Description:
Distance between the termini: 45 Å
Bound molecules: iron/sulfur cluster
Strand content: 15-25%
Helix content: 40-55%
Order of helices and strands: EEEHHHHHHEEEHEEHH
Amino acid sequence: MAGIASQDSTSLWLTEAPARVGRRPVASPLRLSPTAVTCFRQCPRQYKFRYIDRLGDEYGGPRPYFTMGNHVHDTLREFLTTVPLDERNMETMVRLLRKNWRRYRVGFRGQEDERRWAEKALRQLSSFVTSHDIRIRPYLVEAWFETEITPGLVLHGRIDRVDLQADRTLHIIDYKTGNTPEASDWTQLYLNALALSRKMPYPVSKASFIYLSSGLMDTASIESNVLDRARWDLLLTARSICCDKNFRSQPGIICRRCDFKPICPDRVKLQKVEATEVQQGDRGVCHGMQRVLVL
Length: 295
Ligand code: SF4
């Protein structure tokens, strides 16, 4: 097993020295996270803007969904790692969320907008309390990983939560704070499973998304053929990235939250689509809220 250096009680860095067997070390390996892999598969141009040109800081800026997502993740981490079992309830969750929310409040259009996002966070945590096991003691929380898949290719990223099950196998869990999709995209969790299976003393047997907006959990079994396939697909994607000369834009659902619309080659087409959506009133619906989070 690779060295595990404890950073604190809830967060681990999992690293290993690069493999050199039969080869000289590669000067600058391609480093891919599951998010970057998904990004390239969805839109190579967005991948280029973000990971090659590194324009994220210039065009990114704070976004309300990132702020909300960070606070929800932080609150769940604290709740499951620092709160005694007999204090795990909705009141504690609200207290933690309120504390985390006050740390930073960026990206909102104003007080009303912030309140709407805070209520959304509260709804998601409420659905977690009512729909999931809040007495669990996770094996790992927010575990960072980095592993060499092949000389010249490093897979790295972070896993929200890993549970050690009674049969001594691992269950990887990822929290989603966006909308619940019709079908899960397993790319991210299969790659997480691939990385973790190389690092941990226990095999990975399951991976799940917890969609906090609906409280639903979607679970997949992790067999060896799943890991083989994930590794093969990763190698193909890495090769595509290395061979890509154009990084074509590929408009789709991700354009809605793409920071690079102002410089996208398809921006005119996108503006027309957005104008049509506005005319059709295709905007998110704000549902009524039973509880109010006092900020
Ligand atoms: S706006 Fe859409 S097509 Fe353009 S770079 Fe972003 S994701 Fe790609």
